[in-house]
UniProtKB/TrEMBL annotation, chain A:
It holds the Pfam family BPD_transp_2. This is Urea ABC transporter permease subunit UrtC. The lineage of its organism: Bacteria, Pseudomonadati, Pseudomonadota, Alphaproteobacteria, Rhodobacterales. The chain crosses the membrane at residues 12-33, 45-65, 139-162, 169-187, 219-239, 266-286, 292-311, 318-335, 355-382. PANTHER family: HIGH-AFFINITY BRANCHED-CHAIN AMINO ACID TRANSPORT SYSTEM PERMEASE (PTHR30482), SLR1201 PROTEIN (PTHR30482:SF4). It comes from Rhodobacter flavimaris. It is a multi-pass membrane protein. The gene is urtC.
Automatic annotation (TrEMBL), chain B:
Residues 1-20 form the signal peptide. The chain crosses the membrane at residues 375-399, 428-446, 507-527, 558-578, 590-618, 630-647. It comes from Rhodobacter flavimaris. Keywords: Amino-acid transport, Cell membrane, Membrane, Signal, Transmembrane, Transmembrane helix, Transport. This is Urea ABC transporter permease subunit UrtB. It is a multi-pass membrane protein. It is found in: Cell membrane. The lineage of its organism: Bacteria, Pseudomonadati, Pseudomonadota, Alphaproteobacteria, Rhodobacterales. Belongs to the binding-protein-dependent transport system permease family. LivHM subfamily. InterPro entries: ABC_transp_permease (IPR001851), ABC_UrtB_bac (IPR017779), BCAA_transport_permease (IPR052157). The keyword Membrane applies.
């Protein structure tokens, strides 16, 4: 009998179990459905962290498994957020306009739209609804755009880049350029997405005014946990079968896979587009919890941080990405939130708000140099797994291929 | 003699005869005047018109000023003083140039300029001509100033004429050209005469000749003179358009119906169109029992129902008739439209238009040249920022994301040096080598500690150096704060090299261009002519082969990396001179620098040069197409680069064969 999916991926069951326990635990400790030990803002932070874990899985698929260091996935994340944010903002403003309409006559559709446009675009000095907002009134259409816009963008970009055999660091720089171009474009006031003001008030869900933020935050936590669980399953399914072997082959030695007759570009393109869509879905769940989105979120640096999370967690294994994203983003929130106690060195007091970035940067360098397996390496240590002894021979000549210390026998 | 004068003055100063007689005996009379046989020149004119001069009116003073102007010596000084409110009339009616002293006035005789003693305050009434009169005096003065023996005064007069010359200045200016000896001032006078003729001249031929005389001159003043001639206004006519027509506008071809109707409304030839807001207001004012003209309010969210309601109200006579679409079309069709020149003379406007065409053409060429200079300076900035990368990334294949922070480090070094050395020239001269030293050391340290272990792992290098970049940036913030620090250029770099009114380039940009050239030279020299360059090239191509030839690859890699970082430091000083020195200075350039290297072609300095030129030109070109939006320019530039990489993945100048490395 062929081994089943779960027996090939023992981590999946453990992961789903931990996720379920975590979600239930937070629910029973939340203000809305339980004892109230965990504040609403903390629930939101946890929900956002789950979304970040989801995009980290996407990053691990494309970088850890396929060997493409994409510095553009946060752009897809942001695009997803923008797409859902447009509906949230439009529908919410529509409610406000309708409830505050003071005239004797009921509004014509044109007047209603003009009033909404003035409300939304007053800050950038415009009063007309740009063409990109033409579907903003419809939730299903915008939800479809969450998947379609980043998906098509990733497909076109990936098709162009992979077709002309741009690889390695060149591809990284190219994806970074794409992110920069996108965020610069969105920074303009006439981009139609409110320039650097971004979209705001996204935490208020239209039609759910009766539900308080405390309950909403738990609902979003459930949805995020569900998305993360499904994302993990999909990713585990992809990397466990023959497909997974091929993309790992591409990572370790692209030319050899090509000579074996596989369409390397097709595989890369599929993974690139799929991960872009996963990133977009994560973004669409993240920003309603964050409440605001602006182009600064999509700056190239965000995508690099994503790579940092995955590297610290341990690339090339899915739970590593999740652990890295959760660990680094939570610790980061703790340090930059001013809650970490100052460190008094006698001659100088280290304020973590100022020094956290330094610590993060340096620990990142150290992880890259000395612990390429990242935090997930601790699991190997616990299980007694050792890296293969190849005496320094490389696993593959490609830039993205695993190193001896990263692989597990 | 004294009595003669007294009698004359008394008889002429009709307004103050008694005062004159009363005060005359005490008046000290200047000796010179006493000796003059009779009143001549200025004194006579002043005496003759004393009344008007004392109480001038704008309407009647003209001939008097002209007479004074023609009166000979002393006239300009008198006019000048008069306009400056420095003329006083003594109780006996005589005029003097006055100067306030402690207890009265010091008097100067206007005709001779001689000291005329003093007078107590009570005896002098100051003349205070109003601004209209002062204007007339000033234009009369122009004639004298234009012929003043002092060239500086002549120039000053020309400058003031250039600012607010009028029709009345043309004649004096023409008269002043012939006896001008200084060729520069003569040319200035002739130019100004031409400009004034264009604007205010009376005869068509002279104006046309003046316009044509300038050819396609680039001066802003010429454009300032011609542009008002070409100002047009839109007019509607019932029949054929009249006046100096610039262009007849046909609805549907040149203007659309809306615009045509707007002209009619503006001229009062048609009633204004009913706007949506007005419609709504009218309906709201006529709500009766929850309905407007029988249509329930609840149904009025439909534009068609609103129109119906309004029409019903119109028929009931409750609201004014608004123009319907048919009426608008009919009204538009019943008229003809044209752009009319404000200037009535057709020959002049034709000549002006021709001249403007030539000027615009030439201005266009000059703007292109200016744009070229801008592009060149931007290219040299990118080149400077990228040249260090071209060494570390291009030659060694190491991605250094902290390159931007090395640029920042250089700029901060410059700032710190300026804290200690206040002379800007010296401080820059010290800062350049010091910045090199600091960043060289930083680069070598980083290479030894981190990069050395990752030579085979470019992606890991990217991430590790990025970690260093985050850390460095935050450290800069902690040390220097988030606000911008000043790095001041020496004063001889202030200002700009102005070729004409269109083309100019600031000295600082020229300096950066020169610096970029110097670095290109240094780089080429080091790589092609020195032992170090030879060893670097050898290690780049094949480290183990180089090692077996007795080269120490470790040392070479370290030095090469240090060199690249050091150049980044110097670039930082240069960039800091015109950009704000903040901790984010370098990261603003990092992506563009990578683009420059990648677009140009890795491993080749000429490629970097070509890449910088391409990106600089492109960015300036796009900015020129859409000047209000530099963000869009950067966006489109990056998009272009992404597409460009598709077609030339190895850059403009791609290495071939073994040197390409794969």
């Amino acid at each position: 009998m062929k081994p089943g999916f779960l027996s090939k991926n023992p981590s999946v069951l453990t992961f789903i179990l931990i996720l379920a326990v975590f979600t239930l635990g937070v629910t029973f400790l939340s203000e809305a459905y339980g004892s109230g030990v965990i504040s609403t803002s903390m629930v939101k932070t946890l929900g956002k962290t789950l979304c970040l874990c989801l995009i980290a899985i996407a990053m691990d698929l494309i970088w850890g498994y396929t060997g493409i260091l994409s510095l553009g996935h946060f752009a897809f994340f942001g695009l997803g957020g923008y797409m859902v944010g447009m509906w949230l903002m439009y529908a919410r403003t529509r409610e406000i306009v309708l409830s505050s309409a003071g005239g004797v006559l009921p509004m014509t559709p044109q007047e209603l739209q003009d009033a909404i446009a003035t409300q939304i675009f007053g800050v950038v000095g415009a009063s007309e609804l740009p063409a990109v907002w033409s579907l903003a009134g419809s939730l299903p259409a915008q939800l479809a755009l969450v998947v379609l816009v980043p998906g098509i963008l990733a497909f076109v970009f990936g098709w162009l880049a992979f077709k002309s055999r741009v690889t390695g660091v060149y591809l990284s720089i190219l994806t970074q350029a794409m992110t920069l171009a996108l965020s610069l474009y969105l920074f303009q006031n006439d981009s139609g997405l409110r320039g650097n003001n971004g979209l705001s008030g996204l935490q208020n869900i239209p039609g759910l005014d009766a539900v308080g933020q405390d309950a909403l935050s738990v609902w979003f936590l459930w949805v995020s946990a569900l998305a993360l669980g499904l994302g993990y399953l999909v990713a585990a399914f992809i990397v466990s079968g023959k497909f997974g072997s091929v993309i790992r082959g591409i990572r370790d030695d692209e030319a050899r896979v090509r000579f074996l007759g596989y369409s390397v570009e097709g595989y890369k393109l599929f993974v690139f587009t799929l991960t872009a869509v996963i990133a977009a879905i994560a973004g669409a769940l993240y920003y309603p919890q964050a409440g605001i989105i602006n182009p600064a979120e999509m700056a190239p640096i965000a995508s690099i941080y994503l790579a940092v999370w995955v590297a610290i967690g341990g690339r090339g294994r899915l739970y590593g990405a999740v652990v890295g994203a959760a660990f680094v983003s939570l610790v980061s929130t703790w340090f930059t939130g001013g809650r970490a106690p100052d460190l008094n060195l006698g001659f100088y007091t280290v304020k973590w708000v100022d020094w956290w970035s330094v610590l993060l940067g340096l620990s990142f360098v150290l992880v890259t140099l000395f612990a390429p397996k990242g935090l997930a390496g601790l699991v190997d240590l616990f299980q007694g797994l050792r890296p293969p002894k190849r005496g320094g021979t490389p696993m593959g000549p490609s830039d993205g291929s695993l190193r001896e210390q990263e692989a597990v026998e | 003699m004294r009595t003669t004068l007294l009698a004359l003055t008394a008889s002429l100063c009709l307004a103050l005869p008694t005062f004159a007689q009363d005060s005359a005996p005490q008046t000290p009379v200047p000796v010179e005047t006493v000796e003059a046989p009779a009143l001549t020149g200025l004194a006579a004119v002043l005496a003759e018109n004393a009344d008007q001069i004392a109480k001038p009116s704008r309407q009647t003073i003209g001939p008097v000023i002209a007479a004074i102007g023609a009166a000979g010596p002393g006239a300009p000084a008198f006019l000048e003083a008069w306009a400056d409110k420095r003329v006083g009339q003594r109780a006996d009616g005589a005029f003097f140039l006055i100067e306030k002293t402690k207890d009265g006035y010091a008097l100067t005789d206007p005709a001779t300029g001689a000291d005329a003693g003093t007078a107590p305050k009570s005896e002098i009434s100051e003349l205070k001509p109003n601004s209209g009169v002062r204007g007339l005096i000033a234009s009369a003065l122009v004639e004298f100033q234009l012929n003043d023996p002092d060239p500086a005064k002549r120039r000053a007069a020309l400058d003031s004429l250039a600012r607010d010359g009028g029709a009345e200045h043309i004649e004096p200016l023409r008269a002043a050209i012939d006896n001008e000896t200084d060729p520069a001032i003569r040319a200035q006078k002739e130019r100004l005469e031409g400009l004034l003729t264009i604007r205010y001249g009376i005869s068509t031929e002279r104006r046309v000749a003046a316009i044509e005389g300038f050819g396609s001159d680039l001066g802003l003043d010429l454009r300032g003179a011609i542009n008002p001639l070409l100002v047009t206004t839109r007019k509607a006519f019932k029949g054929a358009p009249e006046g100096n027509i610039a262009e007849e506008l046909r609805p549907g071809r040149h203007i659309n119906e809306e615009e045509a109707y707007a002209i009619l409304v503006a001229e009062g030839l048609a009633p204004a169109r009913l706007t949506r807001a007005a419609l709504r207001a009218a309906l709201e004012a006529n709500v009766e029992n929850g309905a407007v003209a029988g249509i329930p309010v609840a149904e009025l969210d439909d534009p068609a129902r609103r129109d119906a309601a309004y029409t019903a109200l119109e028929q009931a006579g409750k609201v004014p008739a608004g123009a319907t679409d048919d009426e608008v079309t009919a009204a538009v069709a019943a008229h003809r439209y044209a752009d009319l020149y404000a200037e009535p003379d057709a020959a002049v406007t034709t000549a002006a238009r021709e001249a403007m065409k030539g000027i615009e053409m030439k201005v266009g060429v000059m703007q292109a040249a200016d744009l070229g200079l801008d592009a060149l300076s931007l290219a040299s900035i990118y080149f400077l920022a990228a040249i260090g990368l071209a060494i570390t990334f291009g030659v060694m294949g190491v991605i250094n994301m902290a390159h931007g922070e090395f640029i920042t480090m250089g700029a901060y070094t410059g700032y710190v040096v300026q804290l200690y050395i206040s002379d800007y020239t010296t401080s820059i001269l010290v800062a350049l080598p010091l910045a090199f030293a600091v960043t060289f050391l930083a680069g070598v340290t980083m290479e030894r500690l981190v990069i050395r272990h990752l030579y085979k792992r470019p992606l890991e290098t990217l991430l590790a150096t990025f970690g260093i970049s985050i850390a460095l940036q935050q450290i800069f913030k902690n040390i220097f704060g988030t606000q911008a620090r000043p790095l001041t250029a020496p004063s001889w770099l202030d200002g700009a090299w102005v070729l004409n009114d269109v083309v100019s380039i600031s000295y600082i940009r020229i300096a950066i261009f020169v610096l970029a050239l110097v670095f290109l030279g240094i780089f080429l020299f080091v790589m092609k002519r020195t032992r170090l360059g030879l060893e670097v090239r050898a290690v780049t191509q094949n480290p183990s082969m180089a090692a077996s030839m007795g080269i120490n690859p470790d040392k070479i890699n370290m030095l090469t990396f240090g060199l690249g970082s050091g150049i980044a430091g110097i670039a930082g000083v240069a960039i800091g001179l015109f950009a704000k020195v903040t901790s984010e200075l370098g990261s603003d350039y990092i992506v563009q620098s990578f683009m420059t290297v990648v677009v140009g072609g890795v491993g080749n300095i000429w490629g970097t040069l070509a890449g910088a030129t391409l990106i600089g030109t492109l960015q300036k070109g796009i900015e020129w197409l859409n000047p209000s939006n530099t963000l869009a320019a950067q966006t489109y530039m990056i998009l272009f680069i992404i597409v460009f990489i598709q077609f030339r993945p190895r850059g403009i100048i791609a290495l071939k064969g073994r040197a390409a490395g794969d």
